[in-house]
Specification:
Blueprint (H helix, E strand, L loop, with lengths): L9 H14 L12 H8 L3 H13 L3 E4 L3 E4 L4 E4 L6 H7 L4 E11 L3 H6 L8 E10 L2 E11 L15 H8 L4 E12 L2 H7 L6 E11 L4 E10 L3 E4 L5
Parallel strand pairs: 3-10
Antiparallel strand pairs: 1-2, 4-5, 5-6, 6-9, 7-8, 8-9
Helix pairs in contact: 1-3, 2-3
The protein binds 2-acetamido-2-deoxy-6-O-phosphono-alpha-D-glucopyranose.
Length: about 240
């Protein structure tokens, strides 16, 4: 199974072997992989080598450890294409997952100068600040901090935000969403966000900031989203 003569280090070969067993479904999602001792016997290598392979697979998000219980196969990450301007609800539904939503905060506020500028607001114009945890099949995926100009959504209520914001904007408000500008960067999660997303500190996250526009050029939202890096993978298609 492993090639001891190869220049490829043993721990890399073991990683590849475990990966292909996961892909083949030999170790299904949620199942425990064999213990370090069993793997040591199976691959005829030292415990240190096995440990290194497992740690790498944990860091890559293919496996996760649970204290005192063992090491398990993680669910594959959601692959999110960065092409169309879709909503969270649409993204999850298109994958056959059930979108969920928990409203953490909903309040009127004076935006910071940078938010006001992005939303092209005059001084004194206020926004709704909305914080929502977004779920897929009851698992927390992202935390969204949304700023919406009050003048565009004077009737907005907590009740209305239980469902899809884009559906509300397009169907109830009859506004036409056109495009958005996005920025993405990696970061480490903050303590308060980690609790809401049910992840440990420190964990890697993906920060996405989106400014979205209506067809008349009016910005209607600025959203700062925190995506769990262990649940999300963003993909793009590029042409030469
Ligand atoms: C996505 C958008 C967010 C938008 C939300 C609406 C990104 C980075 N963000 O999560 O800007 O507010 O969808 O979703 O893609 P909803 O219609 O399900 O409420």
């Amino acid at each position: 199974m492993l090639d001891k003569q190869s220049r490829i280090p043993m721990y890399v070969q073991i990683e590849e072997e475990l990966k292909s067993r996961i892909e083949r479904g030999e170790f299904p999602v949620g199942a425990a992989i064999p213990s370090e001792r069993e793997l040591t016997e199976l691959f005829k290598v030292s415990r240190m080598t096995v440990r290194q392979s497992i740690t790498n697979l944990v860091n890559d998000g293919l496996l996760y450890r649970e204290k005192g219980r063992g090491t398990f196969v993680a669910s594959p990450k959601v692959e999110q294409p960065l092409i169309g301007m879709t909503s969270f609800t649409e993204d999850m539904q298109s994958r056959g997952m059930v979108p969920g939503n928990r409203l953490i905060r909903f309040e009127k506020m004076t935006p910071s100068p940078d938010i006001a500028k992005e939303l092209q607001l005059q001084s004194g114009e206020k926004v709704f600040y909305v914080e929502r945890i977004r779920y897929a099949d009851d698992k927390p995926m992202a935390l969204e901090k949304t700023y919406l100009p009050i003048k565009l959504f004077p009737q907005l209520s907590k009740e209305a935000l239980k469902g899809s914001l884009y559906l509300l904007i397009e169907q109830e408000q009859q506004l036409m969403i056109s495009h958005a500008k996005q920025r993405m960067e990696a970061a480490l999660v903050k303590q308060e966000d980690a609790e809401l997303l049910q992840i440990h500190v420190p964990s890697a996250i993906l920060l996405i900031e989106r400014a979205s526009y209506l067809t008349n050029g009016q910005p209607f939202e600025v959203v700062r989203s925190i995506y769990r890096a262990d649940r999300y993978k963003f993909i793009t298609e590029i042409k030469r």
